[in-house]
Amino acid sequence: MSDPTNTVYVSNLASSVTRGRLQEFFAFAGTIENCNVHHNEEGDITQAAVTFSSPEALGTATLLHNAVLDGRPINVQLQPSSSPLPFAQGDLADDLFRVLPSNPKMRAIAKKKMDDVLAKFIITAVDSTFKALKSQVATLKETLEPKMREGMQPIVDAEASLLKQLDEKVRDPLKPHLDKFVVPALAQVTKVILGPVDGGFAQFLKEWNARTDEVVKRVQDKGEDGLKRACSYTGAHHFYWSYWGGLREPCHKLDEMREPIELLGIICSHVRGYQFVSDCYSMMKELARKAYFTLEIQTRANMKAGDSVADAITKAVEDVQGRLLNDTQMYMHQYLFDRLKQVVWEPLESKAIPALASLVEPLDALIPGPVKQFISIAGLLERFISDTVDGILEGAVDEAASSAIEGLASAV
């Protein structure tokens, strides 16, 4: 005979549920002693009483209340219903507390089992939800992505058309003025700036080579113990005053270059002075620090590979010199370009772009209504001018830098 104190009462069952399915569903709560079912007139199971061999299983079984079995949430109660209708909703917390064992050890075992069951159901629910969402996202992507691409195509076409008209209406009339005034001015300023930069960096490399000769001699004399001490002193501050003296005259010379071109005057006022020299010096100091750090690491690596101290540092110096030359060229070119773009863009943004805006204002009427929120004539004009200036500056810096690169190579 079944023990009613070890029994849970199940209702609201789907018509497809069988006795075997019920026993399988509740099996992990504990060992099932008996499973009595109640059928309706159609022969479907509507209620069941599942009896376990021990009361500890009840706590786990009640956690299955509202769990989905064959597509329907089931009711799991500790008290039988007085009618064939689904069991009344009782206070599960009170029922659970009543059936849990009073022994602390048994309570801990029961709690762990309940936690395991709860975790299992959470993982199952999250996993099924994630899979469903992933499927929905994939479906939405398949259906919406083509529509989005189709919807964006008019915007892309409109922007391309506007850029073409902008090119025709602005670039052609603007190009003669750029070629006659702005391009020569930028090229001249770049050469004047690059001259002392070339000399400064060439002097820096010569000083670095001289200092490195001292490092090599110290390492050869004192061995590995002198390597770190020798490489820790960059000597970069020795280059500063000679570099500042070499730049001072060319910076003043910029004043003499001022033509009746407002843009050139603004450029000259921005690139000369202490800050420009200080920035270049900071770059040299950082280059020297990295070079000596690399020299130390490379020397140790060569020694680890079996080279003598003398051979290890000689090889390392040759390797680091090549890297330093490449880094110097890169730093110098990038700094000049960024610096020139910065000082040129300010007057263009404040004066040239507003003046040119009137030329392209009629193009605003050509933008289709639905795409006006995505395309701005002002934004297109700004991008057009920025690209044009980038091309001019790249050309000027590249042309003027050729002699500097030769000077740097001869310095090493």
Automatic annotation (TrEMBL):
InterPro entries: Niban-like, Nucleotide-bd_a/b_plait_sf, RBD_domain_sf, RRM_dom. Keywords: RNA-binding. Coiled coil: none annotated. The keyword ATP-binding does not apply. Residues 6-81 form the RRM domain. Pfam families: RRM_1 (PF00076). GO terms for molecular function: RNA binding. This is Niban-like protein. It comes from Kipferlia bialata.
